[in-house]
Amino acid sequence: MMKVDVKIWAVSALLLACSPSQDTGTEEGKDLGLSTYYKDYFPIGVAVSPSALQGVQAQLIKDNFVSMTPENVMKSGPIHPQEEVYNWAPADKVAAFAKENQMKLRGHALLWHNQAPDWLFVDSLGNDVSKEILYQRLERHITDVVTRYKDVIYAWDVVNEAISDESGQFYRDSKWYQICGEEFIAKAFEYARAADPNVQLFYNDYEVINPVKREKIYQMVKGLQDAGVPIDGVGIQGHWSVYEPSESTLRATIDRFTGMGLQVQITELDVSIYPKEHAPRDKNEDDDDTFTDELKQKQIDQYDMIFRVFRENKEKLSSVTFWNVSDQYSWLDFFPVNGRKDYPLLFDEDNQPKEAYWKVVGF
Ligand code: XIL
């Protein structure tokens, strides 16, 4: 009799373990929210626009994330469109939401070659300014923006994407580089440190999984550190895909930056359903954007692997941030292929958790 009971118990336990609600790793089938499952690992953040801070997405953000990054509104173009004009309102809205909900806030980005305002680099005649003028403008920009959000931002992406994707070229040939040479990178960190002695200062870049680019980033960051430049961390963007990185590449990427005495954060995570491309192009007839069952499974497996590696590296990672909230809207719907829908996040087009979500929290 006893034996039978035990068997029945074991069978029901097994059935329960396989039922959808238990598969979630949740208590009594209740979803605790992404960040709660990871509270002993690392804070999980999300990139937001002010429009995401109302309605359904606002609730989703509050339920699942403990940190935010403004997707666009603190970039130099949007926030400082003309020399004497700051557009603070959208950025203030993100800062206020973070404060109201006791969320961490990452600032993004003080210096980037993209979404920089035209006025920054030219004089009234349209000619390039000297590097002295450019530094004056940069210093003022960084001082004003960092000072304004000093009470709420704990970390800034100070320089974004300064390293070239070309294997034969070290620095990106940007307007910054053309006018200043490599020195602008150190200057930006120094201005940020002067504006806020306590905020953490990051260098942030993509394609860090590429060994050649990774090594350039490492060398640059090491050079800054050796020169006494105030840098606190490296941001690995993490715009990945169901096809990359492999587990060993991901481990090698994280490991390269540990042991430097710097923080390492994943700052812009998404897992595209397409093979990765980094240059914009038009959509063509071969661009099928069906999110097939096979791709869904690939994405589940990729997210599963990525978060397993993250958890195993929790001592090395101080934060993980997703780039956008749900598949309802992702920047990858427009880039690199304009109009090709992507499904790169853990929440679906209706802002509901995807199977990949349950996999990520079910450990
Ligand atoms: C993207 C935004 O998501 C888009 O809305 C905008 O049109 C372009 O920039 N790397 C970065 C981010 O550091 O700032 C970029 O964000 C995505 C790639």
Description:
With 363 residues, this protein is an alpha/beta fold. The chain has one domain (34-361): TIM Barrel, CATH 3.20.20.80. Helices cover 39% and strands 15% of the residues. It contains 13 helices and nine strands. α12 (293-312) links the parallel β8 (263-272) and β9 (317-322). The longest helix is centred in the C-terminal third of the chain and has 20 residues, at 293-312. Residues 1-25 have low confidence and may be disordered. The site of (3S,4R)-3-hydroxy-2-oxopiperidin-4-yl beta-D-xylopyranoside has 7 residues, from loops.
Topology:
Blueprint: H1 2-18, H2 20-23, H3 34-37, E1 44-48, H4 55-64, E2 67-70, H5 76-79, H6 89-100, E3 104-112, H7 131-148, E4 153-160, H8 175-180, H9 183-195, E5 200-205, H10 211-226, E6 233-236, E7 239-241, H11 247-256, E8 263-272, H12 293-312, E9 317-322, H13 355-361
Parallel strand pairs: 1-2, 1-9, 2-3, 3-4, 4-5, 5-6, 6-8, 7-8, 8-9
Helix pairs in contact: 7-9, 12-13
(3S,4R)-3-hydroxy-2-oxopiperidin-4-yl beta-D-xylopyranoside binds at residues 71-72, 160, 206, 237, 268, 331.
Shape: globular
Seen as an oligomer or otherwise, the chain set is single chain
- Tell me the Rg in angstroms: 22 Å
Largest sheet: 8 strands, parallel, barrel
**Alpha-carbon distance between the termini?**
35 Å
Helix percent reads 25-40%
How many E-type strands?
A: 9
Write down the overall mean pLDDT: 93
β-strand percent reads: 15-25%
Bound molecules: (3S,4R)-3-hydroxy-2-oxopiperidin-4-yl beta-D-xylopyranoside
* Main β-sheet, spatial strand arrangement: 1-2-3-4-5-6-8-9
Provide the succession of SSEs.
HHHEHEHHEHEHHEHEEHEHEH
Number of helices: 13
The tally of structural domains comes to 1
CATH superfamily: Glycosidases
Residue stretches low in confidence (pLDDT < 50, at least 5 long) are 1-25
